[in-house]
Amino acid sequence: MKVRLLNVVCLCCLLLASCNSQDDVSNGLGQIETNVSNLQSAMSALQKAYDDGKNVKSITPLGEKVGGWEILFSDNTLIRLQNGQDGRDTEAGIDEEDDADDTDNVTPYLFVDQDGYWCISYDNSQNFTHLMNNDGDYIKAQGEKGDKGDEGMSIRVTIDADDFYIYELYKLSDPTNVIETIDTPYNTNPSHLIYGIIEDDVAHTMSLTMQNGKTYTFDKVYNTPTSIAILTNRILIGDGTTQAFEFRVNPSNATFNYDVTSDDCEIELDLVGQTRAADSYVTVPTNYKLTKVEQVYTEAGALKTGQYRAYITDQNLSNDYDDQVTLVLTVTNDNGEKIQLSSSSMQIKYSSSLFTEFKFLKAENDKVLEDVECIIDGSNITLSTPFILDKTKLVANYKTNGKKVFVGSDEQENGVTINDFSTPVKYTVVSEDGEKNVYTVTVKNSELPVVYIDTKDGAAIVSKEDWLKKTAIKIIKEDGSIDYEDNSLQIRGRGNTTWRMPKKPYALKLDSKHEILGMPEHKRWVLLANWQDRTLLRNDVAFQISKQTCMDWTPRGKFVEVVLNGKHIGNYYLCEQIKVGANRVNITEMEETDIAGDEVTGGYLVELDNHYDEVNQFMSATKNLPYLFKDPDEDVMQPEQFSYFQKYINKLEKMMYADDWLTKRKYAKHMDLNTFADWWFVHELAHNREPNGPRSCYMHKDRLGVLKAGPVWDFDRNTFVPVTSFAVKKAIYYERLFQDPAFVKIVKKRWKVVKPQFDQIADYIRTTAAKTRVSNEINIGLWPIYTTHNGDETMSFDESIDRMVSAYETRLAMLDRKIKSW
Q1: Nearest to 40 by CA among 24, 19, 12, 67
Q2: Is the pTM of this model over 0.70?
Q3: Which of 96, 279, 428, 705 has CA atoms 20 to 30 A from the CA of 334?
C-alpha cells in the first residue's frame, strides 16, 4: 500500500455483512459498473483497482435512499459502494412520528485545501468548512515552506467508546504520539462500508478508510482551469501597503498551484502592453508584486468553490505608476502541454492619499475594552466587535500616506479627534498635491454584556467533570459598568453531545450566591454555546414560550460575549442552571435526615435522559424510562429517598397502564396534568423531538406534592423547523395521556388560556434578533457550522430568522386547528 501523509488509519473493526464471491467482484470490475454492498466484496474490488494502478476521478454520494458512494476511475470504470441495512446517511428518511433515536449517521469527508489547511464535510461533500482544533484555530496539514520545525498535522479518524467519530492529530514522524483529540457530535453507523474519506488537492491523492480500518490511497485525477476572471477593475495602493482582490477560475473544481513562494507557482501578474521577452509571455511588474493567494469562504464558513483572493504589495520603489495588469495562469492541459490563460485587465494605481491602517485603541477610548483594528477593503472600512461599548464618542487611530484627513470640513487630529460612529462616517484623505480619496467607516458593536474569564495560569478547560478553581471572572454591562467581578470562580465543561462540538459550553460555580445581569442570585450558572443554531435564539425563544405557561419555573438567560483567557470566543447564552432553590426550582431541598414520614416525600428533581449518566438513577418498571436524580445529589441521597421516589414512579405507571386505568383514573391524582399539558405545548411549538429519546426531560415533586412537568431544557437542535406533524405526542407518557378524554379536555382548556401569549412570540423573535444581529455576525465568523440539523446553517442571519418565524407561526396555526378540532 502507498504511504501518504493523508492516510486515515486504524478504525475499530465492526461486524461484517455476508460476503459475495471475491472472484465475481474482481472479474466484474472491468465492466462499466460494479455494485458492492458488503465489506469483503468492497475491499476485493478496491484492491483490484489499486493493483491495476487506477487513478480516481471523483467520489460522489449515491443519495439518501441508496446510501453509499460512487468511485469513478480515470478509465471511466466505477464502483458503487452501497451501505448495508437501511442505507440512510442523513435524517431525511426518519418519519416525524417515529420515536427512534434521531442521531445523525454520516461519513466524514476530510479535504486539504490548496492553502494546506484541513477542511471537513458532514453532508456528503456538498459543503466544506475549515476543521478547527479545540482552541478554535484552523489546522495546518502542511508546514510552511522551509519550516523544519512544523511538518504540519496528520489526522486519523477513529471512534470513541460511545461510537462517536473523533479525530486524532499527530505528526507523521511520530504517529504514536497523539497531540490532540477532537471530538465530534456524530455517531458512526456500522452499515457504512466507508468510514472516512480524505482528499488532498496538494498531493493529488484520495484515501478511503474502510469499516475494518484498512485504507486505500489512490492518485487523483484533477481538472485543469480553462478560464480565469478578475472580480474588480481598480486597485489603489500606497507605499508598502497591501491590497486584495478576488478572482474566479473555471471549472470551479479546477486545481492549480497558487503558492506564490513556490517555484512551481502557476499564477502571475502580467503588465499589459509591454514588450515581451522572447521566451516569456508574462511581464512581471516591479513596483508591486503578488504576495499571497488564498481560497475564499462564505460568512458561514463554507468554501466558495472556484473563488480566490489575491494580495498585492507595493515595493516602495516608485510613487508614480498607473498600470493595466492581468492575471495569467500557466498550467498543463490533459495532453501534457503548457497553456497560458489570461484574465481581463484591471487598473493598479499608486495613490498618495490612502489609509493603510485604521484602529480604535483602548488607551484613547474609555468605552473600548480592547484594541481593535478595522478591515480596509477599497473605500470601505468596517469593524464588527464586542469590545466597543459606546459608538457615539470614539477616537480613531490611523496610518496614512496622505497629507491631511477630514471628516466633512473638520480636519482630523490622529488619536485625538472624537467622532460619532453610530452611523457610518465619511473620511477624506488628501495628498500634498491635492489628490483625494473618500472612505466610509462603519462600526458595529454587539451591544451585549461582555464576560471575561481567565483561568489560573491560562489553563485549558478540558474536562466536564473536574472544576478549574481560582478562575477570574469579570462581567461588564452594556453601559461599561461592572456587573460582577471575582477571582474565585470555578469552571468546567458541560453537556453530552454539545461537549463534543467545536464551540464548548461551560458550567460556572461562584464562590457565593450572587445576582448576575439582573437575574436572581445563585451560585450555579451555565454558558450555553448554541453552536448548532444559526439563529442563536432557539433556547431563548423556547424559554420565552415556557414563561407564558403554568410551569413553576423557567431558566432565565442573557446573551453575552465571552472572552476566555484573552481570546474572544463568541456569543454565549448565560443562563440559570436547573437547580433546586428559592430562585430556581422552588421545592423543599432534601437533607440526609429526610428518610421517613412527610419528609421523605420531597422534594425531588429528576431528568429523563437515555444518556443515563448519573450516580443515582433507575429504569421505571412499566415504561422502562430512564430516571436520573438531579436533587438530592449523590452527597445527600439516602436509600430510603431513592426507594420512595422509585416506588412513586412505578406505582404511577402501574396505575396508568392498568386495564381499568381510564375508568378509575387513579393516576391523575399523582400528576399535575396542567403542567404536563403546558410542557407539551412548549415542545410542540418548538418541534423539539428530544423527549422521544427521552433526553433532557425534567420533572419535579415537592414535599407532599404530586409529579409536575418541567422545567424545559435543550432546544438548539432540530427545532423551529417548518414541519406540521406532531413532534412528541407519543413521547414518554403522552401516548397514554392523549387516550384520556379528561386530559384532552385539560389541553383544550389550557390552550385557550395561553394561546394569546403564544401569539406574541413571533414579535419576540424579531425583537431579540435585532438585538443580537451584530453579535451573530461576529460569532458565525468565529464558529462556522458544519452540521445540518436545523436546515438553516448556510442561510444568512436574516434568512434564518425569517424561516424561524415562519416555522413557528405555521406550527402555532397547526396546533390551534388540531386542538380546537378535538
Answers
A1: 19
A2: yes
A3: 279
- Domains of the chain as residue ranges with CATH: 22-219 (no CATH), 227-350 (2.60.40), 355-445 (2.60.40.2340), 450-576 (no CATH), 597-762 (no CATH)
Local structure of 621: helix, strand or coil: coil
Contact 431, 352 (CB under 8 A): yes
- d(C-alpha 131, C-alpha 784), whole Å: 10
- 481 SS3 class: coil
Is-contact 54 219, C-beta < 8 A? no
Amino acid occupying residue 207: S
Question: Which amino acid type is present at position 153?
Answer: M
285 CA to centre of own chain: 42
Residues 6+ apart with CB under 8 A from 272: 323, 324, 325, 326, 345
Q: How far is 84 from 620, CA to CA, in rounded Å?
A: 34
Residue among 366, 534, 386 at smallest CA distance from 451: 386
Q: How far apart are the C-alpha atoms of 320 and 449, rounded to whole Å?
A: 49
Residue given cell 434578533 in the structure block = 769
Exposure on the CB side of residue 793, measured as CA atoms within 13 A:
23
Among 586, 639, 583, CA closest to 616:
639
Catalogue the long-range contacts made by 811-819 (C-beta closer than 8 Å, 24 or more residues apart): 811/684, 811/685, 811/687, 811/723, 811/724, 812/685, 812/758, 812/759, 812/761, 814/724, 815/681, 815/684, 815/685, 815/751, 816/751, 816/755, 818/726, 819/747, 819/748, 819/751
- Spatial distance between the Cα atoms of 474 and 453, rounded to a whole number of angstroms: 7
| Structure confidence by residue, pLDDT tens digits, 594-625 | 999 999 999 999 999 998 989 999 999 999 99
